[in-house]
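Encode chain A's predicted structure.
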Amino acid sequence: MDGPSPLGDFLQARRARLRPEDVGLHDLGPRRRVAGLRREELAQLAGVSVSYYTRLEQGLSRGASAEVLEAIAGALLLDDHERDHLERLAGATRRVPQARRPRPEKLADETRDLLRSFDGVPALVLGRRTDVLAWNPLGHALLAGHVDPLSPEDPARRPNMSRMLFLDPHCRGLYGDWRRKVRAVVGNLRIAVGRHPEDRLLAELIGELTMKSPEFVALWGDHRVTPCDAATYELRHPVVGAVTVTQQTLVLARSPGQSVVVCTTPAGSPSEAAMALLRQASAGSGQAAAVDRPGRIAPPQHDGARPDRPTRTPARFVSEHADERRGK
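Encoded structure for chain A:
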């Protein structure tokens, strides 16, 4: 990636978060020209020279040893995820960037089989740039029912969950606590950038969000790197209303950078009932699609319905279902 060193940006951001009293130093005087620790204070804590640490932040030093990185991590009070991120960023500075044409990510056959096995549970496969590589019918209906269900098949039209969460009003309104959700998304993007610093398409995504979303700019500048492996969210679904789901991320060992996101609901809860209703609504609307062989999604089955029968939208289905329960 062009521009300032990602390693330097990360070190500066973490140094700015610390106060002298956080690390046992006495603040000598009320006037400090920088937020957080000064470079010389951090260098003193890490046991390295000020000039060396300055070069490291400026991206002028590419040979930081594991011992030096460990000392700096300790001085910055980094947690395990942040230490791993620091090591990845330092490793990236040692490599000579190679300009390569990015290739569209592919969905392995075994991944498609895994997705098919999540019957009745919303699930989708995300690539390393948070592109949707595939989703099952309920995953599509829950998280992006307004998007063409076949769009993940075409790399040029694939939905991107990060882009939609920041720029798509439907996805922004889906999450009750939208800020907590996007904070987790930005943290995962930070990890992806550390692992793939030469990914041009990933850099373009970051650039687009920076230009179009002030909220993204603020969160990106925080340099959070904590991954979101599992979290519970309150969704405000336009068809079935309030739904509480736990989104769990399953890393695919044989497809580096790809993961399956599965959404579950508590057993016997109103959210489970709402999910069952959404499943019926999706099937009744004619929008459901089942994952088939590679490169294809099977068309929806209508179970012998007459071709001249009008198609019900999910909202109309839910309305009719509610009328039936009221005895109308």
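Residues 286-290, 292-317, 319-328 have pLDDT under 50 and may be disordered.
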